[in-house]
Amino acid sequence: xxxVTQTPKFRVLxxxxxxxxxxxxxxxxxxxxxxxxxxxxxxxxxHYSVGEGTTAKGEVPDGYNVSRLKKQNFLLGLxxxxxxxxxxxxxxxxxxxxxxxxxxxxxxxxxxxTVV
Amino acid sequence: DAKxxxxxxxxCAEGRxxxxxxxxxxxxxxxxxxxxxxxxxxxxxxxxxxxxNNETNEMASLIITEDRKSSTLILPHAxxxxxxxxxxxxxxxxxxxxxxxxxxxxxxxxxxx
Lengths: 116, 113
What we know:
The complex is a heterodimer of chains A (116) and B (113). Chain A has one helix at 100-103; strands at residues 4-7, 10-13, 19-25, 31-37, 43-51, 54-57, 65-67, 73-78, 87-94, 106-107, 111-115. Chain A is mainly beta.
């Protein structure tokens, strides 16, 4: 049982390049989330999904797009990377709004992205 | 969701109990108190949560005051591996926020040998 797996773990992009971060979970969770974390700050929610085929905006969605074509995968895309998107990105999943109260979130180990 | 206030940093000696406070004076009746921690360079880890009763699990104890305006996370025998940032989060049990957790600055707990 791998839990939540994020790929890649590290990446350096040039300004204007695009890339996709992959989050995969094997716990049959309904809900998935993408957060970013910047130095000295807590985690901020970028986008989230409450089920296959659905996505919604979080606190800081600008410059990012997401897709949830399969229940187990949640993709975060940067169409034109900017230095302001240099951050550590965390994916998380939870079963449902009710059971999240019992189990909490499961987080991945993070993707460190640097945009130069 | 109610706002929480935590001290920015705390120290604790290895083997002693670590008591991390959290103020949530505007908490409402259907809001739970959650605690997560983040060890350096890792993703946050769920620790414990509670509504109004004290809770205990294999990791920690959660003490919530009777008026629910504050709580304390207790790590009974802190080890060096407990050095981390600890987040106190208050979250509603209902509504349309789909379980989104809002992380603040947290408390940096440093456990010393």
